[in-house]
Amino acid sequence: MKFILSKINLLISITVIPLDDIKDFLQRNNLKLPKTTKEIYELAESTILNEKADFYSDPIIDWIIAYNFNGNVESHSEKEILRMTKENLSELSERLGSDNSDINSIINVLFYLGKFKPSNKR
Known about the structure:
α1 (19-28) crosses α2 and α3 crosses α6. The chain is 48% helix and 3% strand. It has helices at residues 19-28, 37-49, 58-68, 78-82, 86-95, 103-112, and strands at residues 76-77, 116-117. The chain has two domains: 15-56, no CATH class; 58-122, no CATH class. The radius of gyration is 15 Å and the shape is elongated. The chain has a two-stranded parallel sheet with strand order 1-2. By secondary structure, it is mainly alpha-helical.
């Protein structure tokens, strides 16, 4: 799978992706896990940016969407997203540059962009 990666949004750090998701990404691409967390993230970032992976999990794809995002999107609360209709989710997904209107993917992209406000109650 090939992705077009822009250099527009260099402020989206790969460290916003949970470490377990990064490890899973590396392992599914048959890459040996480095010893330190910093090295793990560096290897993952290098693998993604140099398009050396065969497998991309949803959190990685969501990060790439956020990394490539060059528009403006308002912040959304968890409550607000959970109450959206399928149409609204699809429209938001399109504004984010994604064709995936899955609620978890939308939340991931917004979180990676710093535009997601989780609810206080869990």
